[in-house]
Amino acid sequence: MKTTAVIEKGKDGRFGIFTPDIEHVIIGEGASVAEAKADFENSLAEMIASYTEDGGELPDELRDIEFEYKYDIASVFNFFDFINVSKFARWAGVNAGLMRQYKSCNTYISETQVRKIETALHNIGRELTAISL
Q: How buried is residue 15: exposed, middle or buried, by Cβ count under 10 Å (0-12/13-18/19+)?
């Protein structure tokens, strides 16, 4: 089963992951997205073990579960830290100062800006997959 795992930067500067679309709450936390993902995967493994180690039956929603990660802006630039925020902003047509504020979670980001940034990221992905060496 494929479900969404949301990654967000909290007000405390730490990153959290949660699953809003399933009944079982699986969470992860860390100082970076990578740490939060490792904690999230550990939480999932512990939950599965809690059902199966005593011969119990695993709930249907946890069988063959796969996650589609949904990132907030801060999480994208934390996990993919090789992306230069200012250069990306220029490439995406977003003010560089504003993009740094989005990255830091210091300002509201409209749905229009989110879609603009998401489209730019997808365009980069398509261009990268078209590269031949």
A: buried
